[in-house]
């Protein structure tokens, strides 16, 4: 089964139909959840970058900030992914044909992989070079910023 | 209202408004920048508010977190304002007739008043911000108000394209 065929089947599915035919305010709610999820994901990562650069909370251990950030990051991830999937279901073929959407997915994958690596490595209490940690968290922020610009471009491409 | 609408049309017809509306990448870049500023400013503000409520990094003294995050929060707001004003140039007329638009600004004004009251009144009281333990009720109330008002600002902002006019 080709990807186009799979997306056509998905678009014709009952959940996709139900969402596509629903009131447009439901889509607005998905968008709002998506934006809040993005904020919950990015803010703790930004705090971690600032801490690793020694710009904020230099007296607090990185592990403590990491541990405190996990619930928010988890909530942000759940909110962005669930609302993102629901928005995608409104028109899988339309999104597939959108080059900004493809770009967003590439950046999203990169951001998720980098963020997972950073959280797993920094949380493992293994000795990690500070420079490497700064590069990792910095890359994660750049990837999330690219996701946000690509996401806003979807409506204009 | 007609004065506001006239002014909005003049903004749209200005050189900046036309350039942003007609440029292929200007609008998405500005919208993306607005979202990034929002994540930095409101995101870090949320972290401070959650700390005021005792729900985030309870071992970190509030004064330290508040003081050290403040320059980044203000920097994020500067980004939001610049990108937001430029985006408004290109769609001013549709913005001013959208019902959520005035509410967005009303909630922003209330959030600003709440922040000023916290900064200049509550935080200056002796023992208002102890390093450890539960924070006094006015401090927690200010954190809750800030969190709620910024949530409402974002909701109104995202509703603008979905509610283009009153009727």
Could you list some keywords that capture this structure?
heterodimer; A: 157 residues; mainly alpha; 7 helices; elongated; B: 167 residues; 75% helix
Overall residue-averaged pLDDT value of chain A: 86
Beta strands of chain A, count: 0
| Number of DSSP E strands of chain B | 0
- Helicity level of chain A, as a percent range? over 70%
> How many angstroms does the end-to-end distance of chain A come to?
28 Å
Explain briefly what this protein structure is.
Chain A is mainly α. In chain A, 82% of the residues lie in helices and 0% in strands. Chain A has one domain (3-156).
Description:
- The complex is a heterodimer of chains A (157) and B (167).
- Chain A is mainly alpha-helical and 157 residues long.
- Chain A has one domain (3-156).
- In chain A, 82% of the residues lie in helices and 0% in strands.
- Chain A is built from 7 helices and no strands.
- The mean pLDDT of chain A is 86.
- Chain B is mainly α.
- Chain B has one domain.
- Helices cover 75% and strands 0% of the residues of chain B.
- Chain B contains 6 helices and no strands.
- Chain B has helices at 2-13, 15-22, 26-52, 62-96, 100-120, 137-159.
- Chain B is elongated, with a radius of gyration of 19 Å.
